[in-house]
Design goal:
- This protein is an alpha+beta fold.
- It has a domain at 16-95.
- The chain is built from 11 helices and 24 strands.
- It has helices at 22-29, 34-41, 49-52, 54-64, 69-72, 74-77, 79-95, 146-153, 389-392, 394-405, 411-418; strands at 109-113, 116-123, 126-133, 142-145, 163-171, 174-182, 186-194, 199-200, 204-205, 213-216, 220-229, 235-243, 248-249, 254-256, 268-273, 276-281, 294-296, 298-303, 313-314, 321-324, 336-341, 348-356, 363-372, 422-431.
- Strands 5, 6, 7, 8 and 9 form a 5-stranded antiparallel beta sheet that branches.
- α4 packs across α7 (79-95).
- The protein is globular and about 85 Å long.
- It starts with 21 loop residues before the first helix and ends with a strand.
- The relative contact order is 0.07.
C-alpha cells in the first residue's frame, strides 16, 4: 500500500508475461503452433491452463488442427486430453522417439491401421483373429474364431482343414480378410465382416489376388488387384466396389488404364478419404525411356457412390510436377509414397520420401517431399473423360523433353524453385550405398 492510500497488487517473482490476462494470452496463442503452445505451458505453473483448461484447449485445438483424429474424438475424451495426446504423437513421430513401448501380444501375422491392430494367433487346430483399439487405449479386445467365421461365410468349407487366412485391412469397424483353400480346386474369397456387431457381409469369390489391397469407410469398400491385361504386355490395376449398407457388390469393375506403378507404398498408393477414392503414382510410363526428362505425379479420384470413368478427376500436368531427373539418381529401395489429409487445413497432400544423390554429390540424402493435391472442376457427363488426359499429353511431353534437353543444366534448379508448391524437409543423411 502506498502513502496516498492507493492499493497496488504485488506480484512476487512473476514476469510481465506471467501477469498477462487470460484474454491477452488467447491472442498470443493464435500465432503459435500447437507444439509451441505445449512447450510454453511447461515454462511455468501459471501457464498450465494452456493444456489443462477445457474451454481454452477447445478453442486452440479446433482452430489449429480441426481435422486431426484426436480433435474428432475430443467431445468424448475431452479437449484438454486431446490436445496433449496430439502434441505428444506429433513429437514422437518427428523425433522418432516414442513416449511408450509395450508388448501388445504375440502374433503370427498382423495389420495396423488407424490406431487399430488386427493380429492372428494360431494354436492348431484353433486360430483366432484379435482386434484391439490401441488409439483409444482399449483394455478389451474382440476375438474372432477363424474356423467358425470361414464356415459361416463360405459354404462347402467344412471339410477343408488346410487353408490360408490373411487380414487385409481394417477401418471404420469393418475388417476385410483373404481366405484361400483347395477343395478340390483352389478358391480365393474376400470376407468382409463387422466383429463388434457379429455381422458377415456378402463374400466374394476372387478371380485374382495379385497385389490385392482394400480401402474402405463406413459406407463403401473398394478392393483392387494388379491383374488385368492391358494388351501391351503390361498389367493394369482393376477395382471393384461394395456398398456396405446395402450389402451389395457393384456389378462392374473399373480398370485403371493410366496408373503405371505396381508397388503399393513405393510407386503406387490408394486411399479412401472422405467421400472419394484416390489413386496416386510417381510414374507416368510403363517403359523406361533412355532420355533425361521431367517427372510428374499421376493422381486421380472419383466419388465412392459413383465409380464412373467419365466423372473421374485427374490432376493436371502443370499441377503434378515432381522432379527433374538431372537432379540426381534415386535409390528406389528407400522410396515411400502415400496420400494423407492435412490435420490443420484438411487438404489432401502427396507425401513422398526419396533417397537421392542431389547435384552429383557422393553422399545420399533421404528427403520427404509434400505436395498439395489439386483437381480441376468437375466435368459434365457430356465432356470427354478426364482419365485420358495423360494420354493426350504425350506430344506435349515429347516437346517439353526436347525443349529441356536444349536448355542449360542450371535451368533445372531454377524450375524447382519456381514450383513453390512442393515443400521438402530433410529426414536424415546417409553416405555411400
Amino acid at each position: 500500500m502506498t502513502a496516498s492510500g492507493t492499493e497496488h497488487t504485488v506480484y512476487l517473482g512473476k514476469s510481465r508475461l506471467q501477469r498477462l490476462p487470460y484474454e491477452i494470452f488467447g491472442f498470443i496463442v493464435q500465432n503459435l503452433d500447437l507444439e509451441d503452445v505445449f512447450e510454453l505451458s511447461l515454462c511455468s505453473r501459471d501457464f498450465q491452463y494452456l493444456i489443462r483448461d477445457e474451454r481454452f484447449c477447445r478453442a486452440v485445438i479446433t482452430a489449429k488442427a480441426p481435422y486431426a483424429l484426436e480433435t474428432q474424438e475430443a467431445k468424448r475424451t475431452g479437449f484438454a486430453r486431446a490436445l496433449r495426446r496430439l502434441v505428444k504423437r506429433r513429437t514422437a513421430v518427428s523425433q522418432a522417439y516414442p513416449y511408450l513401448i509395450g508388448i501388445v501380444g504375440l502374433a503370427d501375422s498382423y495389420v495396423y491401421h488407424g490406431g487399430v491392430i488386427c493380429y492372428i494367433v494360431e494354436a492348431r487346430p484353433k486360430r483366432w483373429l484379435r482386434i484391439l483399439d490401441l488409439h483409444n487405449s482399449a483394455n478389451i479386445e474382440m476375438v474372432v474364431d477363424i474356423p467358425t467365421l470361414v464356415t459361416e461365410a463360405v459354404l462347402g468349407t467344412r471339410k477343408s482343414t488346410r487353408y490360408k487366412f490373411r487380414v487385409l485391412h481394417h477401418a471404420a469397424g469393418i475388417t476385410t480378410c483373404l481366405f484361400s483353400f483347395a477343395l478340390p480346386n483352389t478358391e480365393n474369397w474376400l470376407l468382409v465382416f463387422k466383429a463388434e456387431e457379429q455381422t458377415i457381409f456378402e463374400p466374394l469369390r476372387l478371380d485374382s489376388t495379385a497385389r490385392i489391397f482394400v480401402r474402405n469407410n463406413a459406407e463403401y469398400l473398394y478392393f483392387g488387384t494388379h491383374s488385368d491385361d492391358g494388351g501391351d504386355g503390361f498389367r493394369r490395376w482393376v477395382l471393384r466396389g461394395f456398398a456396405i449398407k446395402e450389402n451389395l457388390w457393384f456389378p462392374k469393375k473399373m480398370q485403371l488404364s493410366n496408373l503405371v506403378g505396381y508397388d503399393i507404398g513405393s510407386t503406387a498408393c490408394f486411399e479412401v478419404i472422405d467421400d472419394h477414392f484416390y489413386g496416386l503414382s510417381n510414374q507416368t510410363a510403363f517403359e523406361i525411356e533412355e532420355i533425361d526428362w521431367t517427372s510428374y505425379y499421376y493422381c486421380f479420384r472419383f466419388r465412392l457412390d459413383d465409380p464412373d470413368a467419365r466423372k473421374t478427376q485427374v490432376m493436371k500436368r502443370q499441377d503434378s510436377w515432381r522432379r527433374h531427373h538431372s537432379e540426381g539418381p534415386i535409390d528406389d529401395r528407400w522410396s515411400l509414397l502415400k496420400l494423407e489429409k492435412d490435420e490443420d487445413s484438411g487438404k489432401i497432400k502427396i507425401v513422398e520420401c526419396r533417397k537421392e544423390w542431389l547435384a552429383g554429390k557422393s553422399g545420399s540424402r533421404r528427403t520427404y517431399y509434400t505436395k498439395e493435391v489439386v483437381f480441376p472442376a468437375a466435368y459434365n457427363d457430356g465432356d470427354l473423360p478426364v482419365t485420358s488426359s495423360n494420354e493426350d499429353t504425350s506430344d506435349d511431353q515429347a516437346a517439353n523433353v526436347i525443349e529441356y534437353l536444349n536448355r542449360p543444366k542450371s535451368a533445372a534448379l531454377e524450375e524447382r524453385s519456381a514450383h513453390n508448391t512442393l515443400n521438402a524437409f530433410a529426414y536424415g543423411l546417409g553416405h555411400g550405398g
